Amino acid sequence: MGQIKVEKNVAGIEGLCVIEPAVHGDNRGYFMETYNQRDMEEAGICINFVQDNQSMSTKGVLRGLHFQKEYPQCKLVRVIKGAVFDVAVDLRSGSETYGKWYGMELSEENKKQFLIPRGFAHGFLVLSDIAEFCYKCDDFYHANDEGGIAWNDPGIGIEWPGVIGTYRGTASAKGYNLDGCSLKLSDKDQKWFGICEVK
To answer: Is the whole-model pTM more than 0.90?
Structure first.
């Protein structure tokens, strides 16, 4: 393999991969390939990405947990500024790890990438003052196809680092904080139900 190191099936969840690009640095700065189709295929990852997205969020913003219902997307995610805690939850019907989650820090320092296959819910929490988040998708976004799961569903039990608060039976961010700052979720993300309601 050329410019990447790939850890496959992280946490025993089939298809989840952590990818570390080779970073070439000197006193001028650094260079790295953020995506190389040939290297990915040599690692056994053959995906046709069709769309790149980028977002900026401030500390305490939590986005997710999202998935596409009829048009699922595989995502290759990374952070180019700041740091986030990124989470994937297995929603694949018949999967031995259905409902299991895995989370990892993605940051401009570690330059790691997280490959999330189709059939997973995805979300992230911003740990730094500002985070810029980039991701590739293997299908286009389809309006009115988005589904979601409560970020704090005890049936999943995600351990969001630094988050303090008590579950009150809903996805509301009320009463939760990160480093003394209230969590910030969209109205939509505070209305999702638990994994037991996923259809």
So the answer is: yes
